[in-house]
Specification:
about 260 residues; two-stranded antiparallel sheet; 9 strands; globular; cell membrane; ATP binding; Phosphate regulon sensor protein PhoR; ATP-binding; transferase
Amino acid sequence: NEARTLSCQITRFGDDERLLIIRDVTRLQRLEQTRRDFVANVSHELRTPLTVLTGYVETWQDNSDALPASFGRGLKRMQEQTVRMQHLVEDLLTLSRLETSERHQHNERSIDVAALCEQIAEDGQELSAGSHEITCRLEEGRRLYGDVEELRSALSNLIYNAVRYTPAGCHITIVYRSWDKEGAAVEVIDDGEGISPEHLPRLTERFYRVDKSRSVASGGTGLGLAIVKHVLLRHDAWLDIESRPGEGACFRCIFPAARMESAPA
Ligand code: ADP
């Protein structure tokens, strides 16, 4: 008498024929839940030993004069790798929190999206340290309902990627505009090298990278776009990626009308 989960799919043939497929997805759902719990637990358990390791590495670095010279390079590598692991663990925890916590638990408020875009552009400037030209184009003024911290983390990932995956001298534009009927979109557009079409459908998968060594070298965890996708899903929104090799990329977050506040009178 256990509750089961069924998935229904209706396919239409011609004008008056329909095919109804009902699948029992209970087992699949359980497996997915086990996977999520496992990832969340492992990430959580890794936090403490990592904090201890980081503490030792920092102490040794502060006293590096007292250590043999040959330790220096190894110590630097250890520090880089512990920072990398910390970012990975934090991103894994963020992702599992986004996947598992109920939507009503997040703090939905009215967000000044235009102001958020300006802050994100400033963060991008800081990260690029003047190597890129970053501008903001605000064509839309409406606020939207959502979790400001979640949206900030999604947009930060997009601007960080735009800075990290484009050569110095490129232009990056953040655009806030109306979209479709009453919806809105935030776009992060760059004029960098772009991405080949075969990669586009897989970019939001966990650990999918076009060029792994470049991603690792630039401090990427391979989870950025998966986080963006999940944040948007929690806002009934979605990510659309347009890019052509040699022509840059546009990462567009599309918010439906139901999320938007009406324009100020
Ligand atoms: P990562 O941590 O590797 O940056 P992401 O999920 O954020 O992981 O991005 C996945 C991959 O998408 C990156 O490794 C990179 O190859 C590609 N990518 C993301 N943004 C851009 C961009 N603006 N231009 C070119 N490639 C990009």
